[in-house]
Amino acid sequence: MRSMTTPIIDNTDPSVRFFERQAGDYAIGTIAMDNPRALNALDLRMLRAMESKLLEWRGRNDIACVVLHADSEKAFCAGGDVKAFLSELQKEPGIRFAVDYFATEYFVDYLIQVYPKPILCWADGITMGGGIGIMNGASCRIVTERTVMAMPEIAIGLFPDVGGTYFLNRLPAGAGLFLGLTGARFNGSDAVAIGMAEGFARSDRKQHVLAGLSELDWTADPQSNRELLRNYLDSFVETGAAGESDLMKHLDTVRRLTMRATIAEIDSAFRSWDGADDWIKDAIRGYLAGSPTSAKAIFEQLSGGRELSLKKVFLREWDMALNFCTRSDFREGVRARLIDKDQMPNWNPPALAQLDDDEIDRLFSKRHGQDDLLARKFSELIPED
User: Please, are residues 183 and 154 in contact by the beta-carbon 8 Å criterion?
Assistant: First the structure.
């Protein structure tokens, strides 16, 4: 019989909880998102708390595995808290808050991606934008029948960040660009089919799955622990979930629409499509309602970032994020979609044909004029032996 102790709980930030549970000679560290009123959207305080705890557990020999989940049945994480972000950004001139926020968010995303210990992410419910950012790097990603995913940044005049350049380019050809340009929603079966999740499990199995982690024979070897976790989860996931993917059934249409040489050609294909499928219709409506500046930036982001390393992806997206905050449709998109909620953003310019190529080039430059805080954080991350 395994020895069990009362969990060690750290509630320094009530929006995200940390606790440890004994598992034989080792312990399981748990990060629980706990801000259901905001659908567990990430603010800077939450991200800083996660960064601190992940770094602590990374350096402790007794932590064998980390679990990332939410107590809410409605959402794992709906993304970054962009309303709070914009409110803070507008409190003073310049973009200092954006520098701190994106450096912390992208560092947390990268840290999860390169974490030496296995991380189980149970992504139940709404998982979008920044929520996908913290989910995507986990070594074992589980989705459920309630999972709803999307990278909807084009709707607010932004771009699919949090490593989107990297993971969207690794989806089946055409799918990543389609999801980035349209903000189309997809479900748990889709996520398994396109490689954004390792397994599909019923949401009511969660407590049993998590409780059982304490009974596993963890060791001091992270690779063995990864295999142990995968084998354990295999007994709970449902086989055949990928075969039920609606997204994969639409893949031929998606490719006809997006596998083109320019964003202008894709734009024309979207506007001339006259099919009857509701999912494709809704996706195209999402594109047409989005920012033209974002559309062209997203095309350049993904087409120009296919060969970049993970670290270079985040550094490039860091420049993009700060330049978007300096001047773009982002503030107007947040106003229209989330603050005033009139759903009538005044995109500038309002049409793709009116875009200035130099303005798109600026979005990928260092014209934001800020110190490279993210690069410095990367350089200070001591490699694991």
Answer: yes
Identify the three-state secondary structure at position 246: helix
| This model's pTM is above 0.90 | yes
Contact of 218 with 228, CB cutoff 8 Å: yes
Catalytic residue among 20, 81, 124, 153: 153
Q: Could you tell me whether strands 119-123 and 63-70 are parallel, antiparallel, or unpaired per DSSP bridges?
A: parallel
CB-CB contact of 242 with 192 (8 Å): yes
Q: Which candidate in 80, 129, 157, 183 is catalytic?
A: 80
Is residue 109 annotated as part of the catalytic site, yes or no? no
Tokens in use for 80? 């970054």
Q: pLDDT, tens digit, for every residue of 60-102? A: 999 999 999 998 989 999 999 999 999 999 999 999 999 999 9
Rounded Cα gap, residues 259 and 177, in angstroms: 9
Tell me, yes or no, if 356 is annotated catalytic. no
Task: Tell me, yes or no, if 317 is annotated catalytic.
Answer: no
Q: How far is CA 155 from the centre of its chain?
A: 16
The answer to whether the beta carbons of residues 379 and 103 sit under 8 Å apart is no
The residue with tokens 């929520």 is 131
Active-site hit among 161, 267, 300, 317: 161
Q: Active-site residue 80, yes or no?
A: yes
User: With contact defined as beta carbons under 8 Å apart, do 191 and 199 qualify?
Assistant: no
CA 38, chain centre distance (Å): 16
